[in-house]
Structure formats: C-alpha cells, structure tokens
Amino acid sequence: MTVADSWADDEFEIIFREHFERLSRIVRRVLRSDAEAEEVCAEVLLRLYRGGPKTVADGSAGGWLYRTATRAAIDVLRRNRRRHEEELADGAEASLPTDADGPLDRILRAERIARVRLALARMKLEKAQILLLRHSGLSYQEIGAAMNIGTTSVGKKLARAESEFSRIYQRQQRMSGTAPRLEAAKEGR
Amino acid sequence: MKHAGYDTGTLRAYADGELEQGQSASVAEHVENCSRCGAELNAVTAHAAAVSSSLDQLPQTRWDAGKTDAGWTAFRLRRNQEISEQQARRFPLWRIWSIAGAGAGVALVALLFTFAPLRSWAESFLSIFRVEHFTVLELNPAAMHGNLQNDAFFNQTIGHILSDEVTVTQAPQKPVPVSDAATASKLAGFKIRLLPDQTPSALLFRSGAAAQMKLNRDRLQSILNEAGHDDLQIPESVDGAIIGLRLPAGIMAFYGNCGNMAARAQGIQQPANHAEPDASCISLMELPSPVVSAPPQIDPGQIAQIALEFMGMSPSEAASFTQSVDWTTTLVLPVIPGQTSYEKVYVAGNDGVLLRPRPPRDAGHFTLMWVDNGFVYGLVGSGDDTTALNLAEQLE
C-alpha cells in the first residue's frame, strides 16, 4: 500500500479536531503561558502536516502528536529552567504580603507549580513524558502507542518515572528554604 | 523460598485498572493473601497518589467547543501563510504579487471597493492615509489612458517597481470561514459588529497584509516622462523613502442568499452552473483602518497633486482638490461618473458614501461605505437608500 505525500484537507481536519483539545491541555500544563502552549501545539501540528501521512505510517497520528508535543513542551521547559530556579530562589519573597491570604495563596500556588515544572524539566525526557501523559488522562494503551513501548511495560516505566519525580521533587524541597518560609508566613509564624 | 509475586509495574497497572480482566483477578487474589505484595501495592498506590497530588498543581485549561474551531481556523491561516512563504521563495516577487491578488496596496482597494472603476495601480496611489473620512474623486479614465502612450513600457516599469522595490512583509491570505462572531472577534482582534437578530449565511475571517515599498525617484519619474508629463517633477526627497502599508485583519459576513460569493471570496473554484446571489443577499465587510506610514520628507499633498495630474486632471483642478483634502486621514474613492453615481451620507453621524451603478448595470444594488471610530465598513446589498442606511445603523 502506498502512503500519500500530503494530507487531504478533510483528513487532517479530522485528526486536528480529534486531538487538539487534549494536546492543548497537556502542553498548557507544562508551559507557563497560553502563548507558549499555542506556539508549541501549532508547530507540532504543522510538523505533522508538513510531513504528510508517511510521518505516522507506522503508528497513530494521536500517538505521534502526544509524543512530539510533550517532547517539545519539555524542551521549552528546560530552556526556561533557569527562570524557574530563579523564581524559586527569590521570586516570591520580594512581593510577600503580610496581611492578605488571597495574594499569598496565589504566590504559594505559583511556587508549587514552578517546583513541579522544575522537577519535570530535570527528569529524563522519556520518564517526564510518560508521567505527564498518564497524569493528563491517557490510558496505558495510548501511552504505549505514543511512546512506542508495549502496553505491558507502561506500568513499570510509570512507576519508575514517579520514583524519579518524587526523588527530584523532594530534593528540591530540601534545597529550597523559600517554601517553608512562605508556608510559615501563611500560618502566621 | 523465593517469593513468586508481582512486580511493581504490574501492581501499578493493577492499581490503575489497566490490567486485563483475568490478570486483574489473579493479582487481586494474590495481594489478598500475600502480605508482602499487599504492602507493595499500598506503597505503590500511596506513591502514585502523592505524585498525582503534586502534578494536580499544574493548571487545567478551561475548554469550550469554540476553542477547537478557533484553533482550526488559526492553524489553517498559519499553514496557508507558510505555503505562501514557500511560494515566495520559489517565485519572483512580481509573480507573488499577482498570485496574492495584486499585493497589499491593491488588496486594500479590493477589499474596500466593490466597484472597480480604475486601474489598481492608480487606486494604490490614492491610498495614503489612516482612514477617518471619505471623499469622492470623479475621474475621467479616457484622459488617463490618453496619457499612456506606451502601455508595454508602462506595464514593464510597474512590473519592475513591484519586483524590485516592494517587499510583502505579511502576505495576504485567502479568507477562511469561522463558526461564530466570538471566534471571528478573537481572530480579528476586535469586537466585530453584525446585523442584529440575523445569522450570517457565511462568516469569513480575512487575515491582515502588509508591504513596504522603497521609492525609486528616477523610475517613477520615467513613468511620468513616458506619459508625456515631464512637466511633473517628483521631488528628490522621495528617493529611497520607505512607504509602509498595513491592512489589518477583518471580517466579511454574508446574509441571505449570496450564491457563491463566500466561496469565491475564499478562492474556491466554482462549477459553471454555480448559484447566483439574489436580492436578499447582503454582504458586510469591516476592518480597522488601513495605515500607510511614510517618512516625514514625504508630502502626501504634493504626491497626490502629481498623481491627480497624471490621471488627467488639470493642474488647477488637481490643486483645488488636493487642498480640499486632508491626505493623512481621508480615503479617496475614485469614481467614474458615467458608470457610478454617488451620494455623501452620514451613518450614525459618521462620514459615508453611498455608491450605485448607473444604468444599464443598475439592478438596485448599493454599496455603502463609512468610517466609525477607526473602523472601515462596507455594506453591499439591494434596496433603496433608506434600506441601506437603516441596515448600517443597526449594526451591533
């Protein structure tokens, strides 16, 4: 069977509509802004469009999209890692409010998000991708298709990814003095 | 004795409900009776919950159906732009200009003018503005054409100017359909206005376009000379000046039975027996004012005087007209009186022009153009003047 060089418009639209929402949700969780996420999603979809059907001749378009998009998003995250580190080191303290729970809650939440993203950025790429895909609601079968691994291997790889995440995340917690100070401030200590 | 239990991966899959039914039942039975695997399962589950709790900190995107439509439209625009850029690398500029529907300057006019009374290059000469007002210029095409003693030279020179001195910085794209007003507003970057209580039969988004032209005084002067107008001298100061034209994104809405107008606007090829619009068809175009930027040494009035004389006006007529117009804020609509009648009108207190074709082309059609708060509107339909003005004033 021969594979066409380019997508028919309606064929690509079906793929787009089937995966765009989920793709956008996954990428936006990793990246800091809608603009960054939109750019990554658009670029990944364009790559699939440019490559034509042969790009996914050996698998599913969805799998290719999720694998490529998570890799691209984590690449962006890694490029911005220094910024996340700086935010954790001193960003929140400078604007620490003293008498308003709302703003402080927002700062704490932003800090927790930055810490999670920083841990993802520090993980091995495949592990970060599997973790992200699973926690974005993909089934083992979908993760297997996206990452080109057997479905029966997903549980083991996921467990390892979670262990690596926990190790990095907890080390960050130990290394950072900011969070305890903020939590203490919130508790009035 | 060696423990023949399940590995962490299998327990993790079991906890997630991702094992096949038979294997899942086996694991359930095993962990029930095996304290070591039961403890391992508890640890795996607790660990997964802790990681999940951390990852749940990441923001969740709110989603509605319109986002997918908007995403698809944005994707098509970007893809089309990429295709245009690929063509731009493959073809000489003058050809892109032609492919793109005659380029930014002419695209502006094509969008704004339903009637096409003059050659497009002449219209682009007149389009140096940010539109706040309209005025009408009656032209005699015979006088203009009479000046052009060597059409081949003229076309060749224009071709060279487009090829060498015009850079399309944002190629115009074919309009794309959008599902609703909210999506159109989001894409266009402004809140669009539509006819109340009516659903458009088609709603199209047209991306913006932009171009720059580096003026070559000698080349422009050669056109005037060839046309027998060596009395008109283009000032030295224009040489090398960069003129920028930006046509912002806008929308086109079609109401009633407009036949294949929306499809034609998208550049979709039509069968020979395509449907024609009928008297119920109304089309509306709106976009923020186009902007032309020019360096301070450019005197638009001086350029306009030369252009008007070139197009057949006497020096005194051209001077009189030029002095009556603020060239930085006025869109001049060139009209051939024998073909088009016009009337200056007010739409909700704003300057406007109502144009109608003269017999035998007159079929009750009108084109109403007006400017409101920095936006240019064009409304095309059938009916009397009151109908036209009422429709325009209803927009919301």
Short description:
Chain A contains nine helices and no strands.
Q: What is the N-to-C succession of helices and strands of chain B?
A: HHHHHHHEHHEEHEEHEEHEEHHEEEEEH
Oligomer: heterodimer
Mean pLDDT of chain B: 76
The main β sheet of chain B shows up as: 8 strands, antiparallel
- Uncertain residue ranges of chain B: 88-128
Strand content of chain A: under 5%
Total number of β-strand segments of chain B?
14
Structural class of chain A: mainly alpha
Indicate how many domains the architecture of chain A comprises. Answer: 1
Furnish the topology, listing elements before pairings.
The complex is a heterodimer of chains A (189) and B (396).
Chain A: H1 9-30, H2 34-51, H3 61-79, H4 81-94, H5 101-122, H6 125-134, H7 140-147, H8 151-175, H9 178-186
Chain B: H1 8-15, H2 21-33, H3 35-55, H4 65-90, H5 93-99, H6 103-112, H7 120-125, E1 133-138, H8 141-147, H9 151-165, E2 166-170, E3 176-177, H10 181-188, E4 202-206, E5 209-214, H11 217-226, E6 242-247, E7 250-255, H12 261-265, E8 282-288, E9 291-293, H13 300-310, H14 315-323, E10 330-335, E11 340-347, E12 350-357, E13 365-372, E14 375-382, H15 385-394
Question: Which tags fit this structure?
Answer:
heterodimer, A: about 190 residues, mainly alpha, about 80% helix, globular, disordered C terminus, B: about 400 residues, alpha+beta, 2 domains, eight-stranded antiparallel β-sheet, four-stranded antiparallel β-sheet
What this model shows, in words?
The complex is a heterodimer of chains A (189) and B (396). With 189 residues, chain A is an all-alpha fold. Chain A contains nine helices and no strands. In chain A, helix 1 runs parallel beside helix 3, helix 3 (61-79) packs across helix 7 and helix 4 (81-94) runs antiparallel to helix 5 (101-122). The radius of gyration of chain A is 19 Å and the shape is globular. Chain A starts with 8 loop residues before the first helix and ends with a helix. The relative contact order of chain A is 0.12. Chain B has an eight-stranded antiparallel sheet with strand order 3-4-7-8-14-13-12-11, covered by helices on one side. In chain B, strands 2-5-6-9 form a four-stranded antiparallel sheet. Chain B starts with 7 loop residues before the first helix and ends with a helix. Chain B has helices at residues 8-15, 21-33, 35-55, 65-90, 93-99, 103-112, 120-125, 141-147, 151-165, 181-188, 217-226, 261-265, 300-310, 315-323, 385-394, and strands at 133-138, 166-170, 176-177, 202-206, 209-214, 242-247, 250-255, 282-288, 291-293, 330-335, 340-347, 350-357, 365-372, 375-382. Mean pLDDT of chain B is 76; it is low at 88-128. Chain B contains 15 helices and 14 strands. In chain B, helix 2 (21-33) crosses helix 3 and helix 5 (93-99) crosses helix 9. Chain B has two domains: 8-55, no CATH class; 65-394, no CATH class.
